[in-house]
Design a protein that fits this description.
Distance between the termini of chain B: 57 Å
Shape of chain C: elongated
Mean pLDDT of chain B: 88
Low-confidence stretches of chain B: 1-7
Helix content of chain B: 55-70%
Order of helices and strands of chain B: HHH
Number of strands of chain B: 0
Structural class of chain C: mainly alpha
Radius of gyration of chain C: 24 Å
Number of helices of chain C: 9
Number of strands of chain C: 0
Largest sheet of chain B: none
Oligomer: heterotrimer
Largest sheet of chain C: none
Bound molecules: protoporphyrin IX containing FE, copper (II) ion
Chains: A mainly alpha, B mainly alpha, C mainly alpha
Structural class of chain B: mainly alpha
Number of domains of chain B: 2
Radius of gyration of chain B: 19 Å
Number of helices of chain B: 3
């Protein structure tokens, strides 16, 4: 092994992509649209969420452009409202929630546990169709004029005051919600019932544990937002009164139901990313994840605690002061398991043989940015400071640090990490490392000033602002431009690599997961023979031994 | 997982079902009767207790949970637990809203 | 380095002895397949629990706030119909459970009979529900559609209910909240009825297949899982009955 990299590629002059693989098994559009293969469905998802990501990204560009100047210069104020609303809805429901689970999770959960497919392949396909139906409906809404309630559909704004397309957007989110429920349900069943012989719970890669926890949230929390949306729709159309104060209803009830989902939803968005980071950190420091059990259980703890804190989004909305107290205390608790993960990853690095391939760079980005994001979450969770910071740019910065700095970095880490397995080819290392660094710089330049803006009191969701905030906003917009370049680069070079990338071979990273023990791209049923798990997760000594035996065997 | 080839599912027979049917009908009669008696504070509690008793009979016997694996039992408990969080934590807000104004 | 076959030596025996036609390719045994489907059904029911959970929460909040309105509203519901419907649904749960037993013990005719009875009882339930809904429509107790407060502001104008409960007139501010009660009544029973309708549709399909012997040859998973769904609907109704009809009848 040469210093500085662990990449081990087959001899490029003789290596070939295996003729038989899941991509070549069948041809034609129908073989994709009617497929039951989790890897093909993951591919469909990957293409579609990338599409939605760039739509959401374009809207973000518009927001930043408008905020370049203190006046409303680019668009009218209510257009601006629609733009940030659609940005939020598309990014959250159509990108972040399905991002890692529906693509990488779909692709690799069966492979990592040694199964041929997810337990319910047809349901898996159905979930993609639901996702597309919801997504297209959201796009249609955008064409016919959009919606301007904010992604939170806050009542009574959404039920009584706006004249925009709340119903179609609500329906789109409702449908996407069922897509997410079905994905989560499928994962839980698969992880329980489809594990290969010898694959005990504590031999599962942490990626699986994280997805298991996220799936529990998808199954248990999403239906509540579904019913909340149904109620909003009925309130708007029939005036049933449940959220209408003039009829004795309570608009805050909507927020309770909405945040009962949407707080757990932030963990739906981050947990799978944490799973990716565990795999990447371990592989590129050649060590078993420190405190495997603690990291595994912290995922479950996040899922469970996540149900107890939702009202921290409602501190100033008029809920009871006693409830504020309780929810504020509980919010402090939920930060603990996140911290456990960060500490354990750091200990994993300690004395590891660290190399700096692209996935690892993104993972480092994740660790730093998620830590800041999580810590500022604790600021917001303290009921006192929250009164000052809520509804300012501080919140915007907080959740972009966790969602973009955290989840999007993790998603990119995962895409690069598993790209060789999915396509059989390597991405170009140097330019990817550059893209990772550009992303990191762009990200910080975009969102760090927003913390300061928030502290200074700039409110969120306005198209104009007092002139003294302009400098920081200019920084932020400049950063967004850099960030945009950082996201465009991977699309270009990853597509390039489909044809010109180096042949990756089975296991370019010398990683231990079962998914690396089969060909790349994998066969339709993943493994030529059913694997048996006879070692712990992240057992690099086992891997070395296996490879030595192989070497001996092939030499004879 | 594979490996366990034994048929693990107990088949529940008609005798149990008939017994449960009568218990449920009895419970229904009881709860209607109870609602006509003025028990003050206890009325809703008794109504919910009887309903819960009936629901448990359905879950345990009609739905076979009594005879099922730990996993199924845990799944049911998880559902009830989350349902209770939703209701109880929401009500903590509503119940305490009017308490002393700060 | 090519190590794709490193597991060849210690791989599990791949195929099982028999491969029934209904065993899907990605499962190793019919046991595993049935287990997975059953577990998936349970998880689906969890989502249903949480879906109804939102409605129950709304109900509890407003019932605590507007208790007198909820009592008066509930007196508008007919206990006889409600009790009958509860019994009908319990009976249908029983026939469904018997159907599962018939499938498990491979009694084809018994299964068809049980499913048909369940189907029929389901329709009876919906029929009674329709009668009840009609009554509400006639009395203008449908929120949003010319909702009328008359029965609550002047109970004696509604002699049928009055002679039984002798409700006092509600003050207007409380009376208007009966509309909230009926909103929740229609929401909860409507959502429940929707589940019944879907269930009855599936039952019809199952009866056809059961007559062809589809479920009595060892592959009864579908019947078992549908049974879970049907019992779940029963449970929801057990609570709806207690909460909507029986708030206080004295
Ligand atoms: C690590 C522990 C975390 C804590 C303690 C925390 C705490 C909070 C609090 C208290 C708020 C409400 C602020 C307010 O409305 O005044 C908030 C908002 C938010 N958080 Fe976090 N958070 C954490 C992690 C995350 C993660 C991981 C994500 C997403 C991946 C996230 C996404 C969001 C979003 C989207 C909002 C804003 C919602 C809106 O539009 O109003 N948070 N967070
Ligand atoms: Cu939150």
């Amino acid at each position: 092994m040469s210093a500085g990299t662990i990449v081990t590629l087959p001899d490029q002059s003789t290596a070939r992509i295996p003729k038989m693989n899941f991509l070549t098994k069948e041809n034609g559009l129908l073989s994709w649209l009617l497929t039951g293969d989790h890897k093909r469905i993951a591919t469909l998802y990957l293409i579609s969420i990338t599409f939605f990501f760039f739509i959401g990204g374009a809207l973000a560009g518009l927001i930043r452009l408008e905020l370049l100047t203190p006046q409303t210069s680019l668009m009218a104020a209510d257009t601006y409202n629609k733009v940030f609303t659609m940005h939020g809805i598309i990014m959250i429901f159509f990108f972040l929630v399905p991002s890692v689970p529906a693509t990488l999770g779909n692709f690799f959960i069966p492979m990592m546990i040694g199964a041929k497919d997810l337990a319910l392949p047809k349901i898996n396909l159905l979930s993609w169709y639901l996702y597309m139906a919801g997504g297209l409906l959201a796009l249609y809404t955008m064409m016919i004029g959009g919606v301007d309630t904010g992604w939170t559909f806050t009542t009574p704004l959404s039920t009584h005051y706006v004249n925009t397309n709340v119903l179609t957007t609500g329906l789109a989110v409702f449908i996407a919600g069922f897509s997410s429920i079905l994905t989560g349900l499928n994962f839980i069943v698969t992880i329980h019932k489809m594990r290969a012989p010898g694959m005990t719970w504590f031999r599962l890669p942490l990626f699986i544990w994280a997805h298991y926890a996220a799936s529990i949230l998808m199954v248990l929390a999403t239906p509540v937002v579904a019913i909340a949306i149904v109620l909003v729709a009925l309130e708007r159309t029939l005036g049933i009164g449940v959220f209408d104060p003039t009829k004795g209803g309570d608009p805050l009830l909507f927020q309770h139901l909405f945040w009962f989902y949407s707080h757990p939803a932030v963990y739906i968005m981050i947990l799978p990313g944490m799973g990716v980071i565990s795999e990447v950190i371990s592989t590129f420091s050649r060590k078993r994840v420190f405190g495997y059990t603690a990291v595994a259980f912290s995922s479950v703890a996040i899922a469970v605690f996540g149900f107890f804190v939702w009202a921290h989004h409602m501190f100033i909305m008029g809920i009871s002061n006693y409830a504020v107290l309780v929810f504020s205390l509980l919010t402090m608790l939920v930060a603990v398991p996140s911290a456990i993960k960060i500490f354990n990853w750091t200990f994993t690095l300690y004395k590891g043989s660290i190399t700096f391939e692209t996935p690892m760079l993104y993972a480092f980005g994740f660790m730093g940015l998620f830590t800041i994001g999580g810590m500022t979450g604790v600021f917001l969770g303290s009921s006192g400071t929250d009164i000052h910071l809520t509804e300012t740019y501080f919140i915007v910065a907080h959740f972009h640090f966790v969602m973009v700095g955290g989840m999007l970095m993790a998603f990119l880490a995962g895409i690069h990490f598993w790209w060789p397995k999915m396509t059989g080819r390597m991405y170009p290392e140097k330019i990817s490392q550059l893209a990772a660094v550009v992303t990191f710089i762009g990200f910080n330049l975009t969102f760090f000033p927003q913390f300061i803006l928030g502290m200074l009191g700039m409110p969120r969701r306005y198209a104009s602002y007092p002139p003294e905030f302009q400098i920081l906003n200019v920084f932020s917009t400049a950063g967004a431009t850099i960030l945009g370049v950082g996201y465009l680069l991977p699309v270009l070079y990853l597509i390039w690599s489909l044809k010109y990338g180096a042949i990756a071979g089975d296991n370019p990273w010398q990683a231990t997961g079962l998914e690396w023990q089969t060909q790349s791209p994998p066969l339709t049923e993943n493994f030529a023979v059913m694997p048996v798990m006879d070692h712990e997760a992240y057992d690099y000594e086992w891997l070395e031994k296996q490879q030595k035996e192989q070497g001996v065997a092939s030499a004879e | 997982m594979s490996g366990q080839n034994k048929h693990a599912h107990t088949i529940v027979g008609p005798r149990v079902y008939v017994a449960i049917l009568f218990a449920l009908l009895l419970g229904t009669a009881l709860t209607v009767w109870a609602s006509y008696v003025d028990l003050g504070f206890w009325n809703p509690i008794i109504a919910l207790a009887i309903a819960t008793g009936k629901a448990m009979l359905v879950v345990l016997f009609f739905m076979h949970v009594w005879y099922s694996t730990k996993l199924t039992k845990l799944t049911v408990v998880a559902g009830v637990f989350t349902f209770m969080i939703l209701i109880s934590m929401t009500l903590t807000d509503y119940i305490s809203r009017a308490w002393g104004s700060w | 380095m090519q190590n794709s076959q490193i597991h060849a030596a210690n791989s599990a025996p791949l195929a099982h002895e028999e491969h029934p036609s209904y065993l899907r390719h990605h499962f190793n045994s019919t046991e595993q397949q049935a287990d997975a489907a059953g577990f998936a059904m349970w998880l689906f029911l969890l989502t249903e629990v949480m879906f109804f959970g939102g409605l129950f929460t709304a109900y509890l909040v407003y019932r605590n706030w507007y208790y007198p309105a909820f009592v008066s509203g509930s007196h508008q519901l007919n206990v006889v119909w409600g009790t009958t419907n509860t019994a009908v649904l319990i009976l249908s749960s029983f026939t469904m459970a018997m159907g599962v037993w018939c499938a498990q013990t491979r009694r084809r005719r018994g299964l068809v009979l049980c499913l048909a009875l369940t189907f029929f009882l389901g329709l009876v339930f919906l029929g009674i529900k329709t009668v009840e809904y009609r009554e509400k429509i006639e009395k203008h107790h449908v929120p949003g559609f010319h909702y009328s407060l008359q029965s609550f502001l002047d109970p004696q104008s509604d002699p049928e209910v009055y002679k039984e409960y002798h409700d006092k007139a509600l003050v207007p501010d409380m009376a208007r909240h009966t509309e909230l009660y009926f909103s929740l009544y229609f929401l909860m029973t409507g959502m429940h009825a929707l589940h019944m309708i879907i269930g009855i549709g599936i039952l019809g399909f199952m009866i056809l297949r059961a007559r062809a012997g589809a479920y009595t040859a060892g592959h009864e998973t579908f019947v078992v899982n549908f049974g879970l769904y049907w019992h779940f609907i029963d449970i929801i109704w057990i609570y709806l009955f207690a909460l909507l009809y029986l708030i206080s009848r004295h």
